[in-house]
Amino acid sequence: MTNAFDLAGKTAVVTGANTGLGQAIAVALAQAGSAIVAVGRSGMDETERLCRDAGARFHSVKADLSSLEPIEQIVAESVAAGERIDILVNNAGIIRRADAISFTEKDWDDVMNVNLKTTFFLTQAIARRMIEDGRGGKIINIASLLSFQGGIRIPSYTASKSGLAGLTRLLACEWAAKGINVNAIAPGYFVTNNTEALRDDQKRSSEILARIPVGRWGNPADLGGAAVFLASSASDYVHGVVLPVDGGWLAR
Ligand code: NAP
């Protein structure tokens, strides 16, 4: 029986792969056999070592995703590294915390630019390639519980992640017939830089933990299975879902 989760011969572009969830996803895809193109503004040495240890080919592209400027270079370098792009994981994202009543335009724009605007136009550029070469592909957006819920003190983050869930559904509707699966993963509360401020706040941290049915925060490696599933032929008939990986948070 063939392994529907096998990614041998595939090339995956993963944004924000130097740390946290992006790094764990890159490593999981590498372990499933994919070559990795890691895109980000910081050094990728640790991710490179982990992916190569898994036996994967690895290439990194230095790019600041706060503007659209690096998109052409990302696509060109990724294609050069892998001949074609089979998988795109839009993971890079930022968060700014402040009360909505005093939230600044800069904190709005900075978050929307990375989490939504660049994500859309990078996806568009890579989908054009996937459509041109006629073999389709897999696009995975990293959404959030804030794609379903309001949260507090993170207005631009909630708007961006709710927008990303909508965009996931729209792109799935437009591109499913072209052989591209567009889906999203909504991680719950994971131990990464993104949640450091929350974990440092004893009260918020224990309130969050008390609501997670499995009784612990997520470790980045907990996302690997969902990422491999959505990147592989095992999910060929799955389009436009936002898959929670949240220890049961949304079930409560
Ligand atoms: P993280 O450790 O802060 O990672 C964020 C990644 O995005 C880093 O690689 C970061 O690069 C990259 N990034 C940010 N701005 C960038 C820019 N302008 N150009 C290029 N790369 C940029 O946090 P994380 O938790 O792993 O977050 C990964 C994704 O998961 C984000 O989209 C986040 O919203 C989402 N998420 C996280 C959680 C959670 O509980 N942790 C829950 C739901 C969703 P640098 O290291 O160079 O800044």
What does this entry look like structurally?
- With 252 residues, this protein is an alpha/beta fold.
- The protein has a single domain, classed as Rossmann fold.
- A seven-stranded parallel β-sheet has the order 3-2-1-4-5-6-7, with helices on both faces.
- It starts with 10 loop residues before the first strand and ends in a 7-residue tail after the last strand.
- The mean pLDDT is 97.
- It binds NADP nicotinamide-adenine-dinucleotide phosphate.
- InterPro entries: 2-deoxy-D-gluc_3_DH, NAD(P)-bd_dom_sf, Sc_DH/Rdtase_CS, SDR_fam.
| CATH homologous superfamily heading | NAD(P)-binding Rossmann-like Domain
E-strand count: 7
Query: Would you tell me the overall average pLDDT?
Result: 97
In percent, how much strand structure appears in the residues?
15-25%
How would you characterize the largest beta sheet? 7 strands, parallel
N-to-C terminal Cα separation, in Å? 38 Å
Give unreliable regions as ranges. Answer: none
Name the shape in a single word.
globular
DSSP summary: helix tally: 8
Q: What are the distinct ligands in this entry?
A: NADP nicotinamide-adenine-dinucleotide phosphate
Count of discrete structural domains: 1
In the sheet with the most strands, the strands line up as 3-2-1-4-5-6-7
Structural class computed from helices and strand pairing = alpha/beta
CATH fold label: Rossmann fold
Percent helix among the residues?
40-55%
The CATH level-2 architecture is identified as 3-Layer(aba) Sandwich
